[in-house]
């Protein structure tokens, strides 16, 4: 996918006019456009509002200079972090910005630590941290590495964003209902991205045939609380974990079962969400093609004749494409994301015409 360049309306050395409520959103690499779509869907980001895309090594960033409001607790589920931007610009932080920054931070507390991340050659992380610590110290703030509050500074090429973090992914409404973790569980923000792209509705019958600890179904349920949720997994311990994690949702059923032999009638499902495991998780390290073919064939069999959607995350996009074609499914969109540092393919499926 072609990434648009970051745009700026200020010239070198000038601080742009800025809203005190500018936001910076962080998400997993590859999900910036999904997060923008979610922002527009919720109204946090008006359709024609300016959005700047920025790219870090381990995150995508979205800069919203003039959002109409701060996101509610159940919004922007794809975001890993939501930051309030106190100062931003290009090349050089002005004295006026430093004065305003110090005043804003004092209202929140006097002891702060500074965390700087740099992508590009314009800024040096250590120099920026030392310089900002000195300038804020001169303006009456105590900069202390042991402080509980943090000022985050994101430098991407010539642009800088000085922020305070307002929300992390775990604070999103409903995620406190998760009762048990399981090694290798899908991060909830990735699960939210899959679920959001499936456009879940309250009248949907939603299936995750490899549900693990239930993260995908939990996120789908957050978007569509009245939907029917069905999960299956070969691991009975995972089934028990998923049942605990989904206990707060109505119309939910999680049972032991093989994704290649689903105990569901033909055409029963309107939305299928899945994070496909690798073959080794089924006892065959070289079995990924056969596994994908078997799972996709059952997904196709249980897919409703009209209105069905599927969103799949897989380790091998090429094998997934071949399995989808063999099952009579078409991929309408496919792109790469990074999950815990590893590349994966996210695909949106529909019935082939």
Keywords:
8-stranded mixed beta sheet; 15 strands; RlmKL-like_Mtase; disordered N terminus; 7-stranded mixed beta sheet; single chain; tRNA (guanine) methyltransferase activity; Rossmann fold; 8 helices; 353 residues; 2 domains; 28% strand
Summarize the entry for a quick read:
The chain is α/β, with parallel strands linked by helices. It has helices at 32-42, 95-106, 125-138, 188-197, 215-223, 236-245, 288-302, 317-326; strands at 23-27, 52-55, 60-64, 81-90, 111-119, 142-143, 150-156, 159-168, 205-208, 228-233, 252-256, 271-275, 309-314, 329-339, 342-351.
> What spatial form do the alpha-carbon principal axes imply?
elongated
Helix content bin: 25-40%
Number of helices: 8
What strand order characterises the main sheet? 2-3-1-4-8-7-5-6
CATH class of the largest domain: Alpha Beta
Low-confidence segments, given as residue ranges, are 1-20, 279-283
Number of DSSP strands?
Answer: 15
Terminal Cα span: 25 Å
CATH H-level name of the largest domain... which superfamily? Vaccinia Virus protein VP39
Architecture (CATH level 2) name of the largest domain: 3-Layer(aba) Sandwich
Number of domains: 2
Class of secondary structure makeup: alpha/beta
Multimeric status of the protein:
single chain
Bin the strand percentage.
25-35%
Instruction: Briefly note the CATH topology name of the largest domain.
Output: Rossmann fold
The largest pleated sheet is described as: 8 strands, mixed
Alpha-carbon Rg, integer: 23 Å
- What string gives the helices and strands in order? EHEEEHEHEEEHEHEHEEHEHEE
Kindly state the mean pLDDT as a whole number?
91
Keywords: Methyltransferase, Transferase
Biased composition (Basic residues): 1-10
InterPro entries: RlmKL-like_Mtase, SAM-dependent_MTases_sf
Region (Disordered): 1-20
């Amino acid at each position: 996918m072609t990434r648009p360049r970051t745009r700026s309306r200020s010239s070198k050395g000038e601080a742009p006019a800025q809203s005190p409520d500018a936001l910076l959103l962080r998400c997993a690499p590859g999900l910036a456009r999904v997060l923008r779509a979610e922002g527009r869907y919720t109204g946090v980001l008006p359709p024609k509002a300016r959005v700047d895309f920025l790219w870090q090594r381990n995150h995508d960033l979205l800069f919203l200079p003039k959002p109409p409001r701060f996101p509610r607790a159940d919004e922007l589920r794809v975001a890993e972090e939501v930051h309030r931007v106190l100062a931003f610009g290009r090349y050089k932080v002005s004295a006026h910005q430093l004065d305003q920054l110090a005043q804003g931070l004092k209202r929140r507390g006097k002891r702060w630590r500074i965390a700087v991340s740099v992508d590009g050659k314009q800024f040096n992380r250590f120099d920026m941290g030392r310089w900002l610590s000195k300038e804020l110290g001169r303006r009456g703030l105590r900069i202390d590495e042991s402080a509980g509050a943090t000022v985050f500074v994101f430098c991407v090429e010539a642009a800088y964003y000085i922020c305070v973090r307002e929300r992390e992914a775990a604070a999103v409404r409903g995620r406190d209902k998760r009762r048990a973790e399981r090694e290798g569980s899908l991060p909830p923000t990735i699960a939210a991205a899959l679920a959001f792209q499936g456009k879940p509705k309250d009248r949907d019958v939603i299936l995750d045939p490899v549900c693990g600890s239930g993260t995908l179904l939990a996120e789908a349920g957050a978007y569509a609380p009245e939907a029917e949720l069905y999960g299956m997994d070969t691991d009975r311990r995972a089934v028990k974990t998923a049942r605990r994690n989904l206990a707060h949702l109505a119309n939910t059923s999680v049972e032991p079962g093989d994704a290649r032999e689903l105990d569901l009638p033909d055409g029963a499902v309107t939305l299928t969400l899945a994070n496909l495991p690798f073959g080794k998780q089924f006892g065959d390290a070289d079995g990924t093609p056969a596994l994908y073919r078997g799972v996709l064939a059952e997904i196709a069999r249980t897919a409703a004749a009209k209105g069905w959607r599927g969103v799949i995350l897989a380790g091998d996009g090429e094998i997934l494409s071949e399995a989808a074609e063999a099952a009579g499914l078409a991929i309408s969109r496919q792109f790469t994301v990074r999950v815990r540092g590893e590349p994966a393919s996210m695909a949106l499926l529909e019935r082939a015409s």
